[in-house]
Amino acid sequence: LNGLRDRIVVQCDGQLKTGRDVVVAALLGAEEFGFATTALIVEGCVIMRKCHTDTCPVGVATQNPELREKFAGDPDHVVNFMMMMAEQTREILAELGFRSIDEAVGHVEALDTRKAITHWKARGLDLSPILHQVDLPHGSP
Hints:
- InterPro entries: Aldolase_TIM, Glu_synthdom, Glutamate_Synthase.
- This protein is mainly alpha-helical.
- The chain contains six helices and two strands; from the N terminus they run βαβααααα.
- α1 links the parallel β1 (11-13) and β2 (32-34).
- The N and C termini lie close together (12 Å).
């Protein structure tokens, strides 16, 4: 198309909570995925939006020794979450006929938009501009 795709990496971050979210992002072209808020929640964050005030009531985002004592998180919680996320992602990819996340990147034709188009929030929404399958030259990633 414009010769840029093989010189960039598309990253997706924000509201990635399930393996399905990761697969949809990959099908839309993402190659890297960020999990920030989700990891904080797994560690016990209750989204008080106090991170910048050093008054996190559950001790996730504070340097206050009294508040840090309330922290009940464990790194294994994040490890378990990521393992389950990876497993769900693998299961969905297999259902779609892909052997790896790399194989799925950019395959918008695997997305089923029928439910989205009939949902009351998306009624009348034309998704074709972002779901257009681009014909790439042979050998392009």
